[in-house]
Amino acid sequence: MEITEGAAAARRPLKDTPRHQLTRGLMRTLNVINVNYYRKHNPKNAGALMKKKKKTPANYVFSETGEETFADGRYIVRGRKLGAGSFGQVVEAHDRATSQMVAIKIIQKKQQYTDQAQTEINILQQLHLPQQHDATNHIVRLTDAFMHKGHQCLVFERLGPNLFDVLRGTNFQGISLKLLRKFTRQILKAMEYMRHPNVNVIHCDLKPENILLVSLGHSSLKLIDFGSSCLSRNQIHRYTQSRFYRAPEVLLGMRYTAAIDMWSLGCILVEMHTGKPLFCGYDSTDQLHRIINVLGMPPRELISRATPSFRREYFEEIMMVEGNNQWVDYRLKVHKVVPPKGVEVIPESSKTLAEILCSADKYGTANHPPEQYEALLDLVLRMLDYNPETRITPSEAMQHPFLMNLRQLQPDET
Question: Which of 10, 88, 205, 311 lies at a CB distance of 3.0 to 4.6 Å from 107, suitable for a disulfide?
């Protein structure tokens, strides 16, 4: 039947049709009937159909008293939280067996995090085998592990503030070159040990928050959080590292090595001295753009070895012709960051790495002469080598002029 324009306009609104009037509230009526039926047959279940089933919280929930005991009364937890993350939370506790304060990492009650915690336990136990290298003094010590109400718990020695806290203490103006040297040598010692053929551990998440002072007011430090770590021969996650400290080979979806930790350290050194993250990308694409903006394009050979889907996400292929020779080159795709409302994105730096380092407030002041910045620049550039195969190793880095006593050409003491 043909409906004219006038007839269509004269049709009754849907809410006024008999069908709508007769079926309005039908689902509510059926729900009430169901509830009444189950109340009659099983009063204990009354109202169950009207309520959404509550989910069991994945994170451990402390009692309202604020004090609990773990591991058959050995550890007393009074609720002081030291940190939290996707894995769960870290709380301070008193170990009644040793009369020492410890940190307990309480893992979420999810299988993926429990499995990850078991990996961390295995790696830390391997790193701290008896009669191991003295570099283990710069790696956090796991003292106990147990299950508590379905949550995997890891007990660590109680340490001091992390390097991000140290940076915050400078009002994000950065630490001195002298202190930077002390920190760097200790981190490199731990990295050199982890890279040993008999150890072969990749940390996979080096960042200021995962490097802690042993105690407040002292420069000794330790690496923590091996929850994302893996053995070189057994890589668990293809995509790893915190974004600001993520190596280009990870961004490009390539198989990685312990060299990714060295890239992270290069980023950390700049941040600890200038007070600002070197590459603070909003997302992975923005991260790569910021790296290229400071360091230039990655070598064509590196891009060609990237996982194809990752390569296509970041680059356009261009066929180059010169005489009888043809080859494929790459051009970075345009990327515009559109953050959610209220999220501020730090503008990309238009400075070179040398300009970034020399813009530090301490440049040219006492104990901060230009030649030391030249040495630091050279070290960081070698840490940020695009090619992981030629990136500086921990052993090589410890012999770099920046980390040597300039008067005696001997390694600085830690």
Answer: 88
Shared-domain flag, residues 85 and 231: no
**Do residue 256 and residue 316 come from a single domain?**
yes
Per residue in 333-364, pLDDT (tens digit) is 998 887 777 777 787 878 999 999 998 888 88
Q: Is residue 18 part of a domain?
A: no
Whether residue 103 is found in the same domain as residue 128: yes
Q: Which residues contact 205 (CB under 8 A, 6 or more apart)?
A: 225, 227, 228, 229, 240, 241, 242, 245, 264
> Residue 407 is encoded by which pair of tokens?
């008067």
Q: What is the pLDDT of residues 214-264, one digit of tens each?
A: 999 899 999 999 999 999 888 777 889 999 999 999 999 999 999 999 999
Length of the chain: 414
Do residues 357 and 270 make contact, with C-beta atoms less than 8 angstroms apart? yes
Of 222, 231, 225, 228, the closest CA to residue 189 belongs to 222
The tokens for 279 are: 């590459």
Instruction: Quote the CA–CA distance of 260 and 246 in Å, as a whole number.
Output: 7
Distance CA 402, CA 377 (A): 9
Residues 153, 297 within the same domain: no
Q: How far apart are CA 51 and CA 47, in angstroms?
A: 7
Domain identity same for 117 and 243: no
Phi-psi region of 173 (alpha: psi -120 to 50; beta: other; left: phi over 0): alpha
225 assigned to active site: no
Residue 293 in domain:
yes
Please tell me whether the overall predicted TM-score, pTM, comes out greater than 0.85 for this model.
no
Q: In terms of domains, do 77 and 214 share one?
A: no
Q: What percent of the chain has pLDDT over 70?
A: 82
Domain edge (last residue) among 157, 190, 209: 157
**CB–CB of 48/36 below 8 Å?**
no
Question: Phi/psi class of residue 281: alpha, beta or left (left: φ > 0; alpha: ψ in -120 to 50)?
Answer: beta
The b/e string for 376-414 (b: 16+ C-beta within 10 A; e otherwise) is bbebbebbbbbebeebbbbeebbebebbbeeeeeeebeb
Q: Give the range of the structural domain holding residue 259, as residue numbers without chain letter.
A: 163-403
> Which helix or strand (DSSP H or E) is residue 292 part of?
helix 284-295
Q: How many domains does the chain have?
A: 2
Check 72, 95, 134, 205 and give the catalytic one: 205
**333 annotated as a binding-site residue:** no
Domain boundary pick from 111, 129, 157: 157
